[in-house]
Specification:
The structure is a homodimer.
Chain A: E1 7-8, E2 12-13, H1 14-18, E3 28-33, E4 36-46, E5 57-63, E6 66-70, E7 73-77, E8 81-85, E9 92-106
Antiparallel strand pairs in A: 3-4, 4-9, 5-8, 5-9, 6-7, 6-9
Chain lengths: 127, 127
């Protein structure tokens, strides 16, 4: 008689994943949920103003502090906190020191939205 | 001349939200992303075997330890870790001591999936 099967399933560990890259502003996919992706990124300094006309965008801060500027104010997000930027709302992420965070959004969303330009990262890169 | 407007935007703080309820196995919505919901919950002990035939289901552990049993194995998820249970896969959450976690799934997903029964929580309750 065989013992119960015990197939190894592994959780996704954020610290382990961050240990695999150092570049900033280059989101890396760590998981998918239906047609949505969980992406981790290191951000530092200023980004470009942009919006995503088709989708909301969720930010969960894991380490450090992220400020998201809006045209009429800003929000500061710390570890253990999240924020959802509504679709079509112009925003500009900023971090005085490097912040580690996770973004959740549909597969195919580009980091610079419809703004594009030099800061556009390669999309759908897994780590 | 007026100074720049500074509308107050507030991040969602998980600890603050957990301070607002103590009941277990009753997921509470803290944010929406398009038609998806972020729900936090306190779990302890054993749940029922169930699956969600229509959707994957993401678990992010915030405090404590969650085990998810599958018919052929299990995964243990600790703080700073996540796991996505694929749609249609039978699973049973278990926590030896209370675990605080976040689930991400489409609006309308019921905690017991197509299994139903006494452990079915009220859906779409915000905190």
């Amino acid at each position: 008689m065989q013992s119960a099967p015990s197939k190894p399933y592994n959780a996704i560990n954020f610290s382990q994943k961050f240990g695999l890259f150092t570049e900033q502003w280059q989101p890396k996919v760590v998981a998918e949920l239906n047609d949505y992706q969980f992406k981790i990124a290191r951000l530092e300094g200023d980004f470009v103003w942009h919006d995503h006309p088709e989708t909301d965008e969720a930010f969960i801060v894991l380490d450090g502090e992220l400020r998201i500027d809006f045209r009429d104010g800003s929000v500061t997000i710390k570890p253990g906190e999240m924020y959802v930027v509504p679709k079509g709302v112009e925003h500009k992420p900023y971090a005085e020191r490097e912040v580690r965070l996770m973004m959740i959004e549909p597969r195919g969303v580009v980091n610079t939205g419809r703004e594009g330009g030099a800061r556009t990262a390669q999309n759908d890169v897994w780590v």
